[in-house]
Amino acid sequence: MININLIDDSGLKQTLQATEGQSLMQVAVSAGVRGIVGECGGSAMCATCHVYVDDAFTDQLPPPLETELEMLECTASERRPNSRLSCQIKLTVAQEGLVVRLPERQQ
Q1: Which of 57, 63, 62, 41 lies closest to 3, judged by CA?
Q2: Among 7, 27, 74, 93, which one is least packed by beta carbons within 10 Å?
C-alpha cells in the first residue's frame, strides 16, 4: 500500500492508502474526499480534480501531457507551477508519502 497525504484548504490533513497503478483521483473519490470532484471520471476532460503537489514530490511525477496542461487552464482556483490534475497522477511505490494540497474550490 502507498500512503498519500491530502491537505484541504483549511489545513486538515487526511492520509489515504492506495494501490500501485491507481490514480490519485480514483483514491480520493473512492474515499469520499471533499474537494476532489472528478466529473469526467479521469479522462482529463475537466479540471475538477485539480491539486497542488508538494514541491518535495514534483520531480517524482512524470511531466504533464499537453491535454493536462490545456485543462489546467480551466481550473476554478488559482493555477500554480505545482498544479496537476489528480486523475493524471498514477501512483507508484516511489511516491510513498506523497503530499498534495486541495484548492479552495473545484467549480
Answers
A1: 57
A2: 93
